[in-house]
Specification:
alpha/beta; 498 residues; TIM Barrel; globular; 40% helix; 12 strands; 19 helices
Length: 498
Amino acid sequence: MKFPRSCGTLLHPTSLPSKYGMGDLGNEALEFIRFLTDTGQTIWQVLPLGPTGYGNSPYASYSAFAGNHYLISPDILVNKGLLKPDEMNGALLPVTTRADYDASFELKNRLYRLACNRFFENITNETEEQLNYFKKKNSFWLENYCLFIACSKAHGRIPWNQWSPEFAQKKKRAIDKFKSQNIEEIQYQTWLQFEFFNQWYALKNVANSKGIRVVGDIPIFVDYNSADVWGNPQFFEIDKQGNRKLVAGVPPDYFSETGQLWGNPLYKWEVLEKDGFSWWVERFRQMFELYDAIRVDHFRGFDAYWEVDAREKTAIKGKWIKGPGEKLFNTIKEQLGELPIIAEDLGVMTPSVEKLRDQFNFPGMKILQFAFNSDSKNGFLPHNYIQNCVVYTGTHDNDTTIGWYQTAPDHEQHRAREYTNGNGLEIHWDLIRLGMLSVADQAIFPLQDFMNLDTTHRMNIPGTVQNNWLWRYTPEMLQKVDRNRIRYLAELSNRFNN
C-alpha cells in the first residue's frame, strides 16, 4: 500500500497530561490533536493499546485484542452522566512528568465501578442495543478475555498456569460454575471494554476528521499470562499445565550484549496454518479497525524467529526457525484486502526478510540515531533511502536525540555534525530536519525531540523492566514547543497538511 508523503509524532496515550496519574483519552488527547493540526502533521503514532500486565509495558498485555481500560477518561464519564462532579473530590493526582500507575489504578478502579453501576442502573433500549452489538461484533475474543480477567482476579493475579488445574485447563464444569457465581465481575469487565472502544473510536474519528491518520503497533508475540494463550493453548508452545516450552527473543545486538529474552511463548505455526490462520486474521481485522495503519513490531520474526528453550536465562543460546512468511500475509490480504503495514525491520536483516517486506510493498524503518556509527554506505543515512520507508530520529526503544548525542562516542558525534553541517547544539532539530527533507514517504518523530528533552525523559530501555513507560509531559511543555519551526519544516519538505 502506498503511503502519502507526510509527517507526524510518536506519542503513547499514557504520556498525555492528566490529573488521574496517567494519560487517557480525554481532553488532553484532543489538545494533542490540535497540536498536530497546528503544525501541519498528519500522523499520530501510538504504542500497543492493550491492557498491560507486569511492568506496565504496552508490549506485555493480557490480550492481543482488548483495550487498556485504564485509558478511559473519567472526565468523559462525567460528561456522559456516569460520574458526578462531586464524586471526583479528592480524586486528583499531581500532573508530573512521570506516570503513577499504582495510584492511578486505585483511583480509577473506584471511579469505574461507580460509572459501571450507574450505566446498568439507567440503561436504555438504545444503549443496550449498542452493548449487545459490541458483544456480538467482538465475540471472537471478548467473552474469553473478560472471563480470563475475572479468573485472574479470583486467583490473586498470579499467572494462569499457577491457577488450580480445573481453571488453568478450562474444565467446563468449573468454568460454568465460576461464570454463574461471577456475573457482575464479568459484566463489569465487558463494560470496561465497551467504554474503552467507544472512547477510542470517538477520538480516532476526531483525528481522522482533521486529516490525521493514527498508526498503531502490533507486537508479533503475546504475553504468556494472557487471555490469548489461556484461551487458545493449541496455538502456542506450552505444555498441558500452561508452562512455556519454547520462548521468543533476539540474539545479541545493538541493544544488548546477551540478546533480549522476551519470554513470550512461541507459536505453533503449523497448527495455525491448518486452522487457516484464523486467529491472526481476526487479530489484524481488529487492528485495522483500531488504526489507519499498523507498525508490525519485530517483522523479521515472520520470516525467521529466534527460538530459545524456556529454561535459559539469556537469549544467547537459541536458533533461527523459519516463520510463516508469505503464506500468512497472503491469507490476511485475501480476507482483509490492502494491508497498511509498516515493517519494523531493524536489527540484522537477511535477504529473505527484505524479500518478504518488499513482496508486499511494506515500508521499512530508518532510524537517524543509527546513521553515524560507520561510513557513507550506512543504510540509515538519508542519501541511501528509498522512497518507500518511514524515517524516525528514534523510537520508544531509543534515547531522546539529545540523550543519544550526549552519550555517543566522539566519532559518532563528529560524523553527525559533519553530515548535518551543524555544531551539535541543536542536534535534535538537525536530525528532525534531515528526516523531514529526506525522500522517505513518512517522517515520524518522538514528541520528546520536538520538546528538546534529554535522557531523563526517555520512554524505555530495552532489556530492563524497571522505570520504563513512565514518561509524561505537562500542558506547559506542549505549549512551549516551537510550532512555527515544525510547520516551516513540514512546508519546506512538502509534508504539510493544508
